[in-house]
Amino acid sequence: MAERTLSGIGVTPLSGVGKVVWYRPDADLPEPPAPEDVDADAELARFDEARSDAEDELQTERARTAERVGEEEAAVFDAHVQFLNDPQITDGVTDAIEGGLPAEHAVQETFTGFVEQFESMGGRMGERADDLRDIRDRLVRVISDSERVDLSSLPKGSVVVAERLTPSDTAQLDPKRVAGFVTVTGGRTSHAAIFARSLALPAIVGVGEELESVEDGTEVVVDGDAGNLVVNPGDDTKAAAAAEADVHVRSGPVETADGVGIEVAANVGTLADLEPAVDRGGDGIGLFRSEFLFLDRESPPDEDEQFEAYVDALESFEHGRVVVRTLDIGGDKPVPYLDLPEEENPFLGERGIRRSLGPDASLFETQIRALLRAAGSTDGTRLSVMLPLVTTLEELHEARERFESVASDLAEEGLTHEMPEFGIMIETPAAAFMADRFAPHVDFFSIGTNDLAQYVMAAERGNERVSELGDYRQPAVLHAIDATVSAADGHDCWVGMCGEMAGDPDLTELLVGLGLDELSMSAVTVPHVKAAVTETDTAEAEALAAKVLAADTKDEVTNLLTTDQ
Amino acid sequence: MERIVTVVPEDGLHARPASKFVETANEYDADVQLGRADSDDLAPAASMLAVTGLGVSAGEDVRLVAEGDDAEAVLDALEDILSTPEAEH
């Protein structure tokens, strides 16, 4: 078979070689096999297993609904469980399986029969038809699930290929078994791409429909740097990919060729990110997304649990700074116990610091207590705290007052604590415009380029139709960054960057030239950015930055970045 | 053992009353069937599909037929459900 190459958007500067495993979570049912090929006993077992799994799901959803909505609404799940175990239905499905249908087809056929029967009766029966359809779809999904590709236990060296991967799909991927992933859709800043970077997985997104032509089991090279998927690679291609997989990890601090130190840190979004942050040579943590401590659980972490987590992060590094961002949660991240109101536009709603300063003060207070105590611990001098989505000075002052009042509570209680270094994220146009007013009041700025680009350009990051607009190479975004760095000049205020932009080694020279002191990124690109820093000359970098700031369009910016290197 | 009961819950034998009814019928050993009081057709009370499939509305009379050791107990329990307005459950 001849080697051929498909191109997409590379999201990790890593290469991997492996065999394609197609992941199709919501495919239509295929044609059933011939009845004589169906093993009725095995199919009956699949059906029973699916029924019990579906019932477990329903019970979980019932409990969640009872807690979040009310007992009345939760009762519908009782009815669903009863339909699920209804003797007429189980008999019907059993008969269909014994008649030669696989479990999912038997379920489909049996339920559809009852759905039609109920529909024809009209009135209240129509609602029951909806219930039955709902249960049918759940069962079919659960049955197919049991034989669907299980992302957590793939054969070693699998390259997962899919239309798209949701965050929960990527969360299941075991980086030790997966050689990479490739998707039909998606952009550089899609959640799957960010996840690939934090897991250090070679990945390409946005390959397009052509990807469908690559069959299961085909050998491929995933070149996440160039964004190339090489199908049926020759030996030379494979060897080159293997060589590239060997990056040089620098564990100490780095400086530019002319001796300017640049802190290169890692972003941490789960506890599992701590190890790669150290292994890939991160100088510290430039963004500790504390909200992950609050997600996927039934109640918020208490003060001691948070304290332990912050201390663990500090202890992972011998010297490095750990910048904890306070809880950044909005209506787009469902946290059942927080009872977040549904908002028409959660990205412009009560999120970040707005929520922390909102009516429920206890959650923020607990976090502040844990942070102040962690700052007073053995390694606490290396702890920094930053506030997300700040837009006004009042927010900064109010938050600082909360920190001070909690500190005096702790003093009264005789608990060891310290005031950590205190900074804000610059991720809104408001913060960038007002950076000169913020600078005297903070120890540092950290520019969150994902949100900054989104809010400056009014372009949603996940939306491919506007992803060109939301690109951090847009002149308007670069000017917002420049304004922020300039505003900090002359104040005792360092400036860092913690978006995906910071992890793009093609932009390192520009960022050094713009005057950034610290860059924090997914652990995977730390070695690449460190390498880029050592090759940078600050005078040349400043000249490049001046030219780039003079550019009118993103294309001009891109040209300058490629010709000057 | 047989009993005629008037259905009180506003929803009739749908939604929560039906769900409760089927759940209760399944808790006993006795075999329970039900149908409209004016009809000879009976359906298994342990089947949600059959119970809701009858389409019984509030105010209708239904016939409950139970056979087994705890027939009386199950009829008492089911009668209680059918003759109690929904809000009291």
From TrEMBL, chain A:
Assigned EC number: 2.7.3.9
Binding site for Mg(2+): E427, D451
Reaction catalyzed: L-histidyl-[protein] + phosphoenolpyruvate = N(pros)-phospho-L-histidyl-[protein] + pyruvate
Listed GO CC annotations: cytoplasm
Keyword entries, A-Z: Cytoplasm, Kinase, Magnesium, Metal-binding, Phosphotransferase system, Pyruvate, Sugar transport, Transferase, Transport
Listed InterPro entries: PEP-util_enz_mobile_dom, PEP-utilizing_PTS_enzyme, PEP_util_C, PEP_util_CS, Phosphohistidine_dom_sf, PTS_EI, PTS_EI-like, PTS_EIN
Enzyme class per UniProt: transferase
PEP-utilising enzyme mobile domain ranges (all copies): 154-227
Domain PEP-utilising enzyme C-terminal: 250-536
Pfam families associated with the record: PEP-utilisers_N (PF05524), PEP-utilizers (PF00391), PEP-utilizers_C (PF02896)
Protein residues bound to phosphoenolpyruvate: R289, R325, N450, D451, R461
Catalytic residues (UniProt): H191 (tele-phosphohistidine intermediate), C498 (proton donor)
Top-rank taxon, per record: Archaea
GO molecular function annotation: kinase activity; metal ion binding; phosphoenolpyruvate-protein phosphotransferase activity
Coiled-coil intervals, chain numbering: none
Ranges for domain Phosphotransferase system enzyme I N-terminal: 8-128
Cofactor(s) required for function per UniProt: Mg(2+)
Compartments, record wording: Cytoplasm
NCBIfam families: PTS_I_fam
Family recorded in the similarity comment: Belongs to the PEP-utilizing enzyme family.
Protein name: Phosphoenolpyruvate-protein phosphotransferase
TrEMBL record, chain B:
GO cellular component terms listed in the entry, alphabetical order: cytoplasm
Occurrences of domain HPr (ranges): 1-89
One Gene Ontology biological process: phosphoenolpyruvate-dependent sugar phosphotransferase system
Keyword entries, A-Z: Cytoplasm, Phosphotransferase system
InterPro entries reported for this sequence: HPr, HPr-like, HPr-like_sf, PTS-HPr, PTS_HPr_His_P_site
Pfam families on file: PTS-HPr
Subcellular location: Cytoplasm
Family matches, as Gene3D superfamilies: HPr-like
Protein name (database record): Phosphocarrier protein HPr
Organism: Haloferax profundi
